[in-house]
Automatic annotation (TrEMBL):
Species lineage: Eukaryota, Viridiplantae, Streptophyta, Embryophyta, Tracheophyta
Protein's name in the database: Acyl-CoA-binding domain-containing protein
Record-annotated Acyl-CoA-binding domain positions: 402-495
Pfam hit, one: Kelch_KLHDC2_KLHL20_DRC7
UniProt KW Protease keyword: no
UniProt keyword Hydrolase, yes or no: no
Keyword annotations of the record: Coiled coil, Kelch repeat, Repeat
Entries under PANTHER family matching the protein: ACYL-COA-BINDING DOMAIN-CONTAINING PROTEIN 5 (PTHR46093), OS02G0822800 PROTEIN (PTHR46093:SF5)
Transmembrane segments: none
Amino acid sequence: MGAEMTANFDISNWLSSLAYDQWAALPVPGSRPSARYKHAAEVADGKLYITGGSRNGRYLSDIQVLDLRSLVWSKLKIHMDQFSDQLVDNSVQEALPATSGHSLVKWGSRLLLLGGHSKELSEVVTVRSIDPETLNCCIMKTSGKEPIARGGQSVTLVGSRLIMFGGEDSSRRLLNDIHILDLETMTWDVAETSQTPPSPRFDHTAAIHANRYLLIFGGCSHSACFSDLHILDLHTLEWSQPHIEGDLVTPRAGHAGITINEDWYLVGGGDNRSGVSDTLMLNMSKLVWSVVTSVEERDPLASEGLTVCSEIVNGEKVLVAFGGYYGKYNNEVYVLRTKPKDLSRPRIFQSPAAAAAAASVTAAYALTSSGERKIDIRKKEDATFQETEVGTSPQDFTVGFNLIAAEKMTLESSLTEIRTQNYKFKDDLAEINNTYEDLSKELLSVKGQLEAETSRCVNLEAQISELQNRLEALHSIEDELQVLRNQKSAFERDMEFTTEGTMQKQNSGGV
């Protein structure tokens, strides 16, 4: 029954019947891998690779593969490559130890597995290379400033570099450092950043925009979950926290993210109390949040520790989610058919210069076509005409064609320059917007300080006035005290005089 269903099942037809931006369980027949969370996933050559994870406090070490065309799960049995010149001493190393909270990245024809928590003792982050074709695995030799071993970090591929941020080390110490691995030289380096970085965290997500900006969202510490977004400019190594518009975003950790062009999709996660039911999308160019769809509470897609990847099926981008924990462990595969963008008018033609260049190419093509039609008509009217009488010789036509081709190359060169300028203008505009936002924040801070100082000055003036009144009252009291002192002196003199008179009378009297 399962084999018959697999043979007759067409994922393209099944997807085309789905509504856009809605999650649906993929009808996978047959056996499935054990349910898990905090695993790692990647799509390569139409196959979904699942590695490791955790279940009931036990780390897993298997590699499961789902062929997205045949919908058949299989287990990948790998072994150590003892003949690789890039591996370290593997005499006591396992091919893939039980690991959780690690990262999986596709690099060329290989899968790179980094970091994670495991029972294998290691002081630094281990980089494993897996070849799905030969089933070989090796531990890559790395040098430089190797990062301390950790789990729950984010790892993002930018060209030939891996950008690692944050995580939690084996002593449960939270991290917010940036380490960069050059995959061509296998050398680690530490990025010395400026401005305020994100607070130390783990189980966050990261994305790359325009091959320049690293975005960090959410995650958690040991006491709280976050909903903040931080951006690191990889050229200047400056952190910023820009103003974001759009829908309200709640704190979450253990969520999963994937980018499609300039859109960053975020699925699942939790806040230590319940799972997050909304699927978010951040337009990284406009920095606007929007809710793509929502699921019911305690749904498998409102899980912590799930993964999400993307794949092209029948020309459409599809999100593929697997695993997670939402009160129980999950091993279902869910897909979401993303809504296509409006491509009826390419963005480049919004530039007046580019539109003019396109119009020139169209006009040149029209001129060439009309010339060809004119030649054919005159030849049909009188076949006895010589080629020189037609009005256009093959040499002239060739020259004209070459001129048009040269003009086309010039226009294409101009178009490339315009595109480059547009990209530069976008970067400059983004930098100006960031500067404006920073200045606005600083201005608000200064205004707040000025208001506080003004209020303090008013309070001081009131205190000074009160002290002056007290001082005047003190002068009046001193005058009254002086009068009392004079009265006391006069009274004491009168008493002395009276006492002397009385004593004289007593002394002059007889018996």
